[in-house]
Amino acid sequence: MMRIAAFLVLTLFILPAVQASSESSSWTHEFESGYITTKPLFVGDDVFVRTSGFWTGDDRPIVAAFDVETSNEIWTYTSQTSLQFDMSPLLFANNGAGDCGQWDDLLIVGWADGKITAHSPTNGSVIWENQTEVDVIGISGKMVLDKDRVIVPTRTGISSFCLADGSELMDVDTGNIGWRNGVTITHAGYVFGDELGYIHEVNRNGSISTIFLGDGKIRHPPIETRHGLLVHLQRSQGSTIFLNGTAIAQLGPSPAIPVHHENRIYAATSEEWVSILCDDQTCAVDSTVSFRSNGEMGIRVVDSDIELWAPSNTPNGGWGVFNQTAMIRMETTEFDTYGTSAPGFSNMNLALGNDAGILLVKHYASYESPPQPSDANILGIVHYGAILVFFLLLCFSITLQNPKQIAKLGSAFILLVAIAVVPELSVKLAENSATQGEVEWDDDWPDEWKGTQVMVFEIDGQEHAIGGLMPQTTVYELTTLACKELGITTQIEQQYLGAYLVSFNGSIGDGWEFTVDGTRSPVGMSDAQLKDDSIVEWRPV
Amino acid sequence: MLSAIGTHGPTLSPLAMGALNAILFLVAVWLLVKPHAKSESWLWPLFLFVGLASVARIAMGFIPNVMPVTIMAIMIGSKFGVQRGVAFAILVTLASNAVLGHGWWSLFQIIGWSSVAAMASILRVHDSEGQLSMNRLAFASLWSVPIFTIIVSLSIVVPGMSLLEFGLYLANGLLFDVLHFLGNIFFAMWFGHSFERLLTMNEPHHQLAQQEREHVSTL
Fold first, then answer.
1. Which residues does A105 contact at the CB level (< 8 Å), separation at least 6?
2. B3–A541 CB contact, under 8 Å
3. Low-confidence ranges of chain A (pLDDT < 50)
4. What distance in Å separates the CA atoms of residue A511 and residue A96, rounded to the nearest whole number?
């Protein structure tokens, strides 16, 4: 028994040295011009992506297909007539048959010049095409499939086209223009909004009813909940979330396209990411995280958990990865910049695109969520498993009244418990015992910095400040980011007591100290946690 | 942990660090060769202990303040005396910090573990017949912690730091000292007898008690 216990202890200690294999491969493709503003689409072994932009000269938007495994470009299709931003996501239709005929697999593309084209996924050839209403811009919203037809949000209404031959089956004109006016299918028919704040409900027979929601713009497919339609209305200042015609939340400006999963709706604006919970009574904002996302968002279901990916529409870019209520991590790449497109997901692949026009495809060796901190999870499970095992063995040895075994197993059990408890307890105690300081807002700082993390450096008597950065978790992360943005060089050593800041711009002096919101931290910069609006100051000792 | 308030002791240049390490290594060698030992029954066990302690410390570096070096320093000090105990402390610190990171604190770690070994040579964990006493070893697990902690914490003292600030720093680390103590107890209970067998592996059993009495420290 003792040998088994000893083996368990040794296993526990050795585990961290073992790196879990989460090897992945990736490739990138840089488009010559344009942005990627819509989600890359995985279908089978291929990934499809479109570019977008305000086109001049010879540059034009394209749709391209790549082999996921080899990164080989399979085909491209270039529109010579679409000159505005193409914001309508690609849509894939599986082969099938209906009242209007039968069709093979189709990649359906809506264009800013009002065209709708259906392509062969294998070679990109145009199977059929049709034309919708144009008022400066044509199609810019999300299309949906409804049995044998594709429902297309046009500039001034919706149209439906037969998947078999592209013939127009329905055309409804609301008289109001729309932008990113995606369509939602409901039991009765189709729902979409417009740039004047109206919601239109179109029955499958073409009859239309309209409701005025409020002054503002509806730039997403309305979301159907059990309590009615949820709409995020963009206003001249800020935005409002409506549920069944009633305002339930006032949020920041430039809302993203909200997404729906089970009993939650996830929204975002230039100021926050929001999780809305729909319970038996109503839908209400459940949690908010300071974040800036203005385009698409994507949901990835990993086992029973979800990851919501929101592109950070900031100079630093990246993707915020959230669970149901909070941000888990920031996913970054080498080419991060502004971005509004959702990531594309498949079982083993992730595709990211942003305003740099670079497509990154990652292929993972396992189904595991790509960057999950699985090492820590496994270690934690083993740790708590070992605590349980030693507790049981200790109880067993007590019943045997064997003092030597009790001493051995007891020491191991108490040590394992202490290892689990002490580090966190120590930080909590230190935080509680720290004296609370105050920090004054500098009126010279831009108002845009309010509510964001602000970093201040006093180097050689000169103050450098920066705010509005992507929220960071620790002082160490914020310091690194702020220095990068301000062009301040740092020397940071990983020492016995943790990360130690040696110098800023080569200035060592007598050392450096930091405060968070005016309070000296009881822990080092790697452990000092930040709020979304923390003000961190670095000054010489 | 006090990096936040800039109290980390002086930062040594690579040249200074190399020189300090070289000097410490030479001191360890000198301690091992003086006086010329008639019997070298301690030599290989000590080297084995150095290797074992270094590897274990590196492997367990992710667990804060749980390290087998302290209990091994106690047993070396008690068994072989102050001189070998200091040599052990120097060699283990140099070897393990080669991976974990050298700095000003290395010196204080050496002094800390050396002091623990020195104290163990007085408050021995072996009885009069040279047998390991688990009760004394358990007690040593306790008294060694404040000795080591206070000495290592001196590395963060800078000019202008008050006694109160130093006391607060020590108080902040009390929970981790408890962890150190529990780790010591664990190693004592689980590996105490195994360590003892390693320490005595080169000694004929009938010589053990006699050699303990003959051992003379040069310090």
1. A43, A92, A93, A94, A95, A120, A121, A122
2. no
3. 1, 3, 7-8, 10-23, 367-374, 496
4. 71
Q: Do A525 and B3 touch (CB under 8 A)?
A: yes
CA distance, residue A448 to nearest chain B CA (Å) = 28
Q: Which of A285, A276, A196 is nearest to A234 (CA)?
A: A196
| Angle made by CA atoms A177, A182, A183, in degrees to the nearest 5 | 105
| CA distance linking residue A152 with residue A138, whole number of Å | 11
Residues B198-212 have pLDDT tens digits of 888 776 654 554 444
Give dist(CA A309, CA A301) in Å, integer: 11
Q: Are residues A481 and A518 in the same domain?
A: yes
The predicted pLDDT at position B7 comes to: 39
Residues A109 and A156 in one domain: yes
Cβ distance of A497 and B100 shorter than 8 Å: no
Distance CA B13, CA B7 (A): 17
Instruction: Give the tokens for residue A222.
Output: 């309305």
| Cross-chain residue pair B5–A520, CB shorter than 8 Å | yes
A452 and A388 belong to one structural domain: no
What are the tokens at A198?
């109206």
A chain contacts of residue B185, beta-carbon cutoff 8 Å: 411, 414-415
What pLDDT, on a 0 to 100 scale, did the predictor assign at position A171? 93
ipTM entry = 0.78
Rounded distance, CA A75 to CA A232, Å? 37
Tokens 């049995």 sit at which residue?
A147
Nearest to A418 among B11, B179, B190 (CB): B179
Range of lowest pLDDT (A158-167, B54-63, B183-192): B54-63
Are A411 and B63 within 8 A, CB to CB? no
Pair A489, A502: CB distance under 8 Å: no
> pLDDT averaged over chain B?
81
Looking at domain B40-201, does it have CATH number 1.10.1760?
yes
Q: At what angle do helices B69-80 and B43-59 cross, to 10 degrees?
A: 170
Q: How far apart are CA A198 and CA A214, in angstroms?
A: 7
> Among residues of chain B, what percentage have pLDDT more than 90?
40
Distance (Å) from the C-alpha of residue B36 to the closest C-alpha of chain A? 36
* Residue A517: domain span: 447-540
Q: Omega before B68 cis (within 30°)?
A: no
The answer on A464 and A502 residing in a single domain is yes
The one-letter amino acid code at B104 reads: W
The total number of structural domains in chain A stands at: 3
Cβ distance of A500 and B3 shorter than 8 Å: yes
The SS3 assignment for A129 reads: strand
Report the alpha-carbon distance of residue A261 to residue A284 in Å, rounded.
Answer: 15
Asked if residue A346 is part of any domain, the answer here is no
Contacts with A524 from chain B: Cβ below 8 Å? 1-4
The residues near B8 (Cβ < 8 Å, ≥ 6 apart) are A495, A497, A500, A511, B2, B104, B156
Strands A535-540 and A454-459: what pairing? Answer: parallel
Assess contact for A156 and A133: CB atoms under 8 A: yes
CATH code at position A115: 2.40.128.630
Residue A17: CB atoms within 10 A of its CB come to 11
SS3 labels along A287-310: EEEECCCCCCCEEEEECCEEEEEE
- The CATH number given to whatever domain includes residue A523 is 2.170.130.30
Q: How far is B106 from chain A (nearest CA, A)?
A: 9
